User: What shape does this take?
Amino acid sequence: MAGHNKWSKVKRGKAITDARKGKVFSRLSRDITLAAKSGGGDPDANARLRTFLLKAREANMPVDNVDRAIKKGTGELPGVVYEEITYEGYGPGGVAFIVKCTTDNKQRAAQEVRSIFTRWGGNLAVTGAVSFQFLHAGQFLITAGTTTEDKLMEIALEAGADDVITSEHGFEVRCDLHLFDKVSHALAAAGIRTESAEIAHIPANTVPVTSVGTARSLLKLHDALEDFDDVQNVFSNEEMDDAVSAAAQA
Assistant: This one.
């Protein structure tokens, strides 16, 4: 694993989906409700909702659950009022973290996130303390072999994407936040399936992690944050090679 990077995160997310279906469904329900609340219940006109519906389908989330979540967001059904909150902090080794939460209790969320950071050798920071180290942008990941670089570049750049990055894992498309919907539509219309599509915090620089002990603490911190129901997404900027990662997980 080359750090807790974009591709390792996708693989890790799939493992979590398989092992923790109930929590995944709960988080997806919140995401779908908030997306429908902010952009309406029509996925054709709401790229954010469309993205979460694809994730729900991949996770085999029951259709009834999806429908209820949408109707709660559009006000057709009563439901809990959720808020989106972003926390910033530092983990072991000075690694920067951005934690996105969806909660019905801000005080509970803040206390628990702070406790998790403290437990695993990190600390919460004030707003803006680490966000400057990340690019806030639309990000699409496409697995290698599912399309060609030329085709992807033509479609993505025509839709307004800023960059298409090629690696051994596949392709990464980045775009301005406001063009996420347009790029998402263009990729879908071309039949290009994304492994991941989200408004992400992408590290502008990374922190090398060479100590197995530090790597182990970082992985524990990630696990603890992802286990907390209110946490929807975790972004960080560590970089570790496969040997260190394997040793940390052993």
About this structure: Residues 98 and 220 are 16 Å apart (CA to CA). DSSP finds nine helices and ten strands in the chain. The mean pLDDT is 88.
